Amino acid sequence: MKREIIVTSDGSTSIYLPDWDESYHSKHGAIQEAQHVFIKNGLSLFKGQSVSVLEIGFGTGLNAFITFLESKKTNQSIEYVGVEGFPLAADEVLQMNYVQQLNADEWESEFKQMHEAEWEKPVTIDAHFRLIKRKQMFAAITDVNQFDLIYFDAFGYRVQPELWSVEIFTKMYTALKSGGILVTYACRGPIKRAMIEAGFQIKKLAGPPGKREMLRGRKE
Questions:
Q1: CB 32 within 8 A of CB 26
Q2: 12: closest CA among 27, 4, 136?
Q3: Closest Cα partner for 168 from 149, 148, 150?
Q4: Quick one: which of 27, 30, 21, 29 has its CA closest to 3?
Q5: Cβ–Cβ contacts within 10 Å for residue 152, how many?
Q6: What interhelical angle do 108-116 and 62-74 show, nearest 10?
Q7: Are 48 and 78 in contact (CB under 8 A)?
Q8: Which domains can be identified in the chain, with CATH numbers?
Q9: What DSSP string describes the chain?
Q10: What are 89-147's pLDDT values in tens digits?
Q11: Contacts of 63 (CB under 8 A, 6+ apart)
């Protein structure tokens, strides 16, 4: 599928799929969306704790890199698993401007290391951040009680409704530890109902710039 590099409203880059009229991140700001949805309303709930994170849609590595930067601020130990069915090419990754936009030049080698790391093999990015990338379709996930936090960052319901099904959210619920959290940028009726049917206690939250609401689910 054809992919184009775009610049979103906050100056950060993303990837656009013209055949679907869909982008990897919000056109209103890729970095703003990631920080609001996944850090403010997800990772920040686990301050002072070691955290295991599952990302659904590793994509450009933005969520992983922002999480790494947060771990540097808090000395928080993070085990990070990024699942991606269709990894990006190296030349596409090199066009992402996250290091510059996040004023993180000193961590540029770590961002590159995230993308250069072999799939299916754990890599220690630094003393507080360990990454495993899995090339895997979301329907093939079989983890049980492994994660404190899930970043659910799949393509939108409009283009891939099957990724927002009861079946997928049941897998997410099973993968979480008791008390675990799932956060996602989405807040459509069918998604809420699928999450509830899968067992989640859900809460609607204010969305990132350009989006009114988002969802957070909890496993009791």
A1: yes
A2: 27
A3: 150
A4: 21
A5: 26
A6: 130
A7: no
A8: 29-218 (3.40.50.150)
A9: ---EEEE-TTS-EEEEETTTTEESS-TT-HHHHHIIIIIITTGGGGTTS-EEEEEE--TTSHHHHHHHHHHHHHT--EEEEEEESSPPPHHHHHT--HHHHTT-GGGHHHHHHHHHSPTTS-EEEETTEEEEEEE--GGG----S-EEEEEE-PSPTTT-GGGGSHHHHHHHHHHEEEEEEEEES---HHHHHHHHHHT-EEEEEE-STT-SEEEEEE--
A10: 888 998 999 999 999 999 999 999 999 999 999 999 999 999 999 999 999 999 999 99
A11: 34, 38, 55, 151, 153
The alpha carbon dihedral of 212, 216, 30, 46 has a sign of positive
How far does CA 71 lie from the centroid of its chain?
15
User: Which residues touch 211 (CB under 8 Å, ≥6 apart)?
Assistant: 26, 28, 33, 185, 187
Tokens found for residue 149: 């936090």
| pTM for the full predicted model | 0.97
